[in-house]
């Protein structure tokens, strides 16, 4: 496995729509493994392939706490097929927007269909942090970011700040 570089705002690739993978072959499995290592190293609870510069519909997640066994999920072509009516609010961060947290209200329960690391079709119903993280990562596959839940004014301020930081480091 190898650690990959995480793409940060305002890189325009983060706004691209990712395309489905045709099958979970050795290349996709390697991508999944590298993404998981990158996510654990960051550390974070979810990562989408577009965040390492690969515009394919692949996400990895692990919301287990430090005192629990790791519980990684590998999802190719995740599709949210049901959202519950109850809502959950969580202060979300994003590895592509370090230091920025946004309080976001999303459905508390979600059912997702996906293809797992072994190529098997799966359906999972989740709640709590996992439900939030799944919705956050699927948003990435459609080019949507947590700053899109803010006012335009605040969003533009954050993008300007990241653009300046990048220019300063070039
Ligand atoms: Ni994110």
Mean pLDDT reading: 97
Shape descriptor: globular
Percentage of residues in DSSP E strands: 15-25%
> Terminal Cα separation, in Å?
29 Å
Outline the low-pLDDT stretches. none
CATH architecture: Alpha-Beta Complex
Overview in brief:
The chain is an alpha+beta fold.
Per-chain topology:
Blueprint: H1 26-41, E1 46-48, E2 58-61, E3 73-83, E4 87-92, E5 102-107, E6 110-115, E7 121-126, H2 128-141, H3 152-169
Antiparallel strand pairs: 1-2, 2-3, 3-6, 4-5, 6-7
This protein binds nickel (II) ion.
Residues 94-96, 136, 140 line the site of nickel (II) ion (NI).
Explain what this protein looks like in three dimensions:
The protein has three helices and seven strands; from the N terminus they run αβββββββαα. It has 170 residues and is an alpha+beta fold. The protein has a single domain, classed as Peptide deformylase (Peptide Deformylase), CATH 3.90.45.10. The strands form two sheets. Strands 1-2-3-6-7 form a five-stranded antiparallel beta sheet. It has a two-stranded antiparallel ribbon with strand order 4-5. β6 (110-115) and β7 form a beta hairpin. The chain binds nickel (II) ion. Residues 94-96, 136, 140 line the site of nickel (II) ion.
């Amino acid at each position: 496995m190898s650690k990959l570089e995480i793409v940060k705002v305002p890189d325009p690739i983060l706004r691209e729509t990712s395309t489905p993978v045709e099958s979970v072959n050795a290349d996709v499995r390697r991508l999944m493994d590298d993404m998981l290592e990158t996510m654990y190293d960051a550390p974070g609870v979810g990562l989408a392939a577009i965040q390492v510069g690969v515009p394919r519909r692949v996400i990895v997640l692990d919301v287990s706490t430090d005192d629990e066994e790791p519980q990684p999920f590998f999802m190719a072509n995740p599709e949210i097929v049901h959202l519950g009516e109850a809502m959950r609010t969580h202060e979300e961060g994003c590895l592509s927007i370090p230091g920025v947290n946004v309080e976001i209200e999303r459905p508390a329960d979600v059912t997702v269909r996906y293809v797992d690391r072994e190529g098997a079709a799966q359906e999972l119903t989740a709640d709590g942090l996992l439900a939030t993280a799944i919705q956050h990562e699927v948003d990435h596959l459609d080019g949507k970011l947590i700053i899109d839940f803010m006012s335009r004014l605040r969003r533009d301020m954050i993008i300007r700040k990241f653009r300046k930081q990048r220019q300063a480091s070039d």
